[in-house]
């Protein structure tokens, strides 16, 4: 494991001081950072989604911003706008909260499509255009959007084409028994989960380490058998009678990209079929669409993807 990867292992250790029992989600967010992806975190309130991203920003010495999405949020509230300055009788651009390294888009499905689109355009272009002038976003730049899986009233679900902008959709569940007991002990001892310094979370890496690690990820070995395995998995989703929309070629490429980052963070210089298999659901659960009649019967995208994984033999 090279020096950049050791730095990222130290980052995970720092985040674990504040966030208990959510290591897979932290791993997934870091993987997305390495390959310039974005992430959706889906989980009920109170499972440390905000704290996770905030602690990651602290450990990486990066600027963190949280945007609470609401029905009355305007696109300019996210991206910024031109403001008039009377003292010199001119307009200047006032940057919105999206101008940060790590942006938490909290409850993205609570804001109307126009504001969602402004955020997603910035994610795709990595810049904001106002009055014909482009304003580049910082680098590195990661958007982590959160969704509550049990609340649907008053929400605006993201269309499939916009969901495709996200590399991974990670499910954040309840921590295990031991981790939750540890959380309770922390509260009993009076520790404030929002006071990261008091919890001992310190910067241990930065943009230079991420950039170096990202270059190493590109050079990972990928066997032809793995490429064929990913293609077969994608092809099976297109043939599935349960799905109205299978995985696109871009979705297949995103699985390969995420698998390389996952393998790198696991300390390997090559990608295994198990890396791809582990990421099929996070990389594709938001890229496939169930047929309405199948959904009415209680099926889920994860269950259908499990079926796809069972039908495609894993290369030796």
Can you summarize this structure?
The protein is an alpha/beta fold and 316 residues long. It has helices at 3-18, 23-34, 49-59, 75-79, 113-125, 160-163, 177-188, 207-218, 224-239, 249-265, 273-284, 292-296, 301-311; strands at 39-42, 64-68, 80-85, 90-95, 102-106, 127-130, 133-136, 142-147, 168-171, 243-245, 289-290. Strands 2-5-8-1-9 form a 5-stranded parallel beta sheet. A two-stranded antiparallel ribbon has the order 3-4.
Topology:
Layout: H1 3-18, H2 23-34, E1 39-42, H3 49-59, E2 64-68, H4 75-79, E3 80-85, E4 90-95, E5 102-106, H5 113-125, E6 127-130, E7 133-136, E8 142-147, H6 160-163, E9 168-171, H7 177-188, H8 207-218, H9 224-239, E10 243-245, H10 249-265, H11 273-284, E11 289-290, H12 292-296, H13 301-311
Parallel strand pairs: 1-8, 1-9, 2-5, 5-8
Antiparallel strand pairs: 3-4, 6-7, 10-11
């Amino acid at each position: 494991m090279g020096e950049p990867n050791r730095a990222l292992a130290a980052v995970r250790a720092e985040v674990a001081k504040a966030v208990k029992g959510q290591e897979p989600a932290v791993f997934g967010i870091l993987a997305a950072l390495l390959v310039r992806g974005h992430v959706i975190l889906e989980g009920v309130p109170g499972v440390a989604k905000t704290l996770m991203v905030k602690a990651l920003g602290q450990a990486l010495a990066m600027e963190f911003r949280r945007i609470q999405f609401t029905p009355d949020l305007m696109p300019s509230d996210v991206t910024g706008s031109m403001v008039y300055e009377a003292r010199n009788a001119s307009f200047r651009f006032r940057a919105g909260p999206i101008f940060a390294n790590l942006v938490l888009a909290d409850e993205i499905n609570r804001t109307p499509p126009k504001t969602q689109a402004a955020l997603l355009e910035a994610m795709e272009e990595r810049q904001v255009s106002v009055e014909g002038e482009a304003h580049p976003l910082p680098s590195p730049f990661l958007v982590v959007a959160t969704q509550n899986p049990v609340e649907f009233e008053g929400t605006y679900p993201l269309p499939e084409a916009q969901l495709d902008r996200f590399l991974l959709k990670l499910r954040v569940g309840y921590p295990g028994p031991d981790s939750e007991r540890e959380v309770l002990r922390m509260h009993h001892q009076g520790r404030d989960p929002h006071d990261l310094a008091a919890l001992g979370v310190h910067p241990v890496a930065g943009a230079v380490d991420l950039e170096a690690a990202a270059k190493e990820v590109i050079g990972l070995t990928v066997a032809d058998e793995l490429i064929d395995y990913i293609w077969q998995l994608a092809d099976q989703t297109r043939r599935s009678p349960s799905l109205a929309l299978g995985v696109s070629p871009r979705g297949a490429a995103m699985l390969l990209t995420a698998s390389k980052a996952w393998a790198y963070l696991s300390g390997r210089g090559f990608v295994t079929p198990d890396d791809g298999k582990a990421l099929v659901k996070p990389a594709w659960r938001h890229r496939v669409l169930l047929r309405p009649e199948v959904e009415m019967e209680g099926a889920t995208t994860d269950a259908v993807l499990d079926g796809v994984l069972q039908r495609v033999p894993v290369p030796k």
